């Protein structure tokens, strides 16, 4: 076939629709072949599917190049300005991190997510933020917290915020801050007593600006846990993976709003240092460059057997990635457009490309890449996902479709061709051999990424049972990863 779309956004939809059609036909052919026990037809179905997807990929790439050649300006305009000035008169479309915005655009086009979101909004009703906060925490008036209100006014003016800010505090030694869903003319920021007492004015300015950023970019529009709980019968595991990836990317946008308010990158560095280490006294001599350099080579850090990097795997990017992303923003032409004291050493395009590379360290493995160990990694992902799906004794069509979303089409076709010929014990034996082969070549980060993605897949229907957890535990043990990591990922997904 040949694609006819005139813009990249329309081409993406056309390409996805073609892939979906090919996948549905393959599933139908596989079901028919499996029902009749015709192994030749199973092989034929997978080969046809492989050929179709290869052709579609070639046509997709070809059409992208044609659109690029036709009009470069048109390409830039295919990324629309999706943020309005309803809440602030600052240029949010310039400030936003591309990864955050691109996921939102994709969600807006995803009919399943939009239908699920409609159900969430219909069933949940409007959350009464102020009523809840007045019952559960202490409202900080200007008399009680004059410095905090000074920070609030500064952030309001810097971000050209239209609403007023109301502050609340609750008792807690942990360093935490959040912003509750705003009313029309007021937004609510709640701080733990720990962060309020032990962070400096400049550090709190970054924290407050960051929380306001979540409001400005309307991050409340996609409540991840509620979407997954409500859409348990409709959404595929790939939706869960994308929603959690967006969650992490959204933090990068909010960090930029925080830096705009603080305008002191060293203070931002101290903020992350305190959040990471818990040390707030002068017992350590903080040096920003040393702090950043400590995490330059994340692979080396994560491969240190004495460290436990699993703490960094959550709905938030871990601090080293955030500080590196913000360091790039601090040197960019984009930041210079908001802060005239900045020279802007890096173009916006170069900044976004590098941040995307950095953030990819927490994204699912790029399974499309052809590498020395790619096929074994994908085979492990497929078999691991299959064993999780089969933990309750039944693997239905929706779970087969889910498996197709986590491995490359060629590998999926091959796995489908061989899976019915294996007993569960044979699958487990193969998984054991694959993990043995891969253990010496995979970094700790790659292992954690694989386990995290499989954990999220298992929870994509909004619930997870003990049999699925046991499979995940066994996979973790085979990869020499502490099973606590599985608990942490699942706990984070469930909001525990």
TrEMBL record:
- GO CC annotation: plasma membrane
The Peptidase M48 domain, residue ranges: 146-220, 243-327
What is the recorded membrane topology of this protein?
A: Multi-pass membrane protein
| Co-chaperone DjlA N-terminal domain span | 387-484
Q: Which GO terms describe its biological process?
A: proteolysis
GO MF terms held by the record: metal ion binding; metalloendopeptidase activity
Name its cellular compartments: Cell membrane
Q: Which residues form the signal peptide?
A: none
* Co-factor(s): Zn(2+)
Record bears the keyword Transferase: no
Q: Which UniProt keywords apply?
A: Cell membrane, Hydrolase, Membrane, Metal-binding, Metalloprotease, Protease, Transmembrane, Transmembrane helix, Zinc
The answer, when asked if Ribosomal protein is one of the entry's keywords, is: no
Q: What is this protein called?
A: Peptidase M48
Q: Which species expresses this protein natively?
A: Polaribacter atrinae
């Amino acid at each position: 076939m040949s694609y006819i779309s005139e813009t990249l956004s329309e081409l993406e939809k056309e390409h996805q629709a073609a892939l979906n059609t090919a996948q549905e036909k393959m599933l139908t052919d596989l079901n028919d072949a499996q029902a009749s026990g015709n192994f030749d037809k199973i092989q034929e179905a997978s080969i046809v599917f492989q050929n179709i997807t290869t052709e579609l990929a070639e046509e997709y790439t070809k059409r992208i190049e044609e659109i690029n050649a036709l009009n470069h300006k048109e390409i830039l305009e295919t990324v629309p300005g999706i943020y309005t000035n309803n809440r602030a008169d600052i240029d949010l479309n310039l400030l936003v991190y591309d990864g955050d915005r691109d996921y939102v655009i994709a969600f807006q086009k995803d009919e399943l997510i939009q239908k699920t979101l409609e159900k969430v909004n219909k069933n949940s009703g409007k959350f009464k933020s102020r009523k809840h906060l007045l019952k559960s925490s202490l409202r900080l008036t200007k008399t009680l917290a004059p410095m905090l209100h000074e920070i609030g006014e500064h952030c309001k003016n810097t971000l050209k915020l239209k609403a007023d800010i109301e502050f609340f505090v609750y008792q807690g030694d942990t360093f935490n801050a959040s912003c509750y869903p705003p009313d029309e003319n007021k937004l609510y920021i709640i701080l733990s007593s720990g962060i309020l007492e032990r962070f400096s004015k400049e550090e709190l300015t970054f924290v407050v600006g960051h929380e306001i950023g979540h409001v400005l970019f309307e991050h409340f529009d996609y409540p991840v846990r509620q979407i997954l709980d409500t859409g348990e019968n409709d959404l595929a595991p790939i939706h869960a993976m994308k929603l959690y990836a967006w969650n992490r990317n959204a933090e990068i946008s909010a960090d930029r709003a925080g830096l705009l308010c603080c305008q002191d990158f060293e203070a931002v560095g101290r903020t992350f240092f305190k959040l990471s280490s818990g040390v707030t006294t002068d017992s350590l001599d903080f040096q920003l460059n040393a702090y950043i350099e400590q995490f330059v080579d994340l692979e080396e850090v994560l491969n240190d057997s004495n460290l436990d990097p699993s703490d960094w795997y959550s709905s938030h990017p871990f601090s080293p990635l955030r500080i590196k992303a913000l360091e790039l923003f601090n040197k960019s032409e984009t930041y210079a457009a908001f802060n005239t004291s900045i020279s802007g050493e890096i173009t916006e395009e170069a900044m976004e490309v590098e941040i995307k590379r950095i953030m990819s360290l927490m994204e699912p493995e790029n399974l499309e890449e052809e590498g020395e160990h790619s096929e074994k990694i994908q085979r492990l992902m497929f078999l691991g996902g299959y064993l999780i799906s089969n933990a309750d004794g039944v693997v239905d069509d929706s779970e087969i479709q889910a498996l197709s979303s986590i491995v490359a089409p060629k590998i999926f076709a091959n796995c489908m061709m061989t899976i019915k010929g294996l007993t569960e014990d044979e699958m487990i034996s193969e998984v054991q051999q694959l993990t043995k082969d891969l253990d010496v070549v995979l970094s700790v980060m790659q292992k954690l990424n694989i386990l995290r993605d499989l954990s999220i897949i298992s929870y994509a229907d909004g619930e997870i049972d003990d049999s699925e957890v046991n499979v995940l535990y066994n996979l973790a043990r085979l990869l020499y990863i502490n099973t606590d990591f599985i608990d942490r990922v699942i706990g984070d997904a469930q909001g525990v």
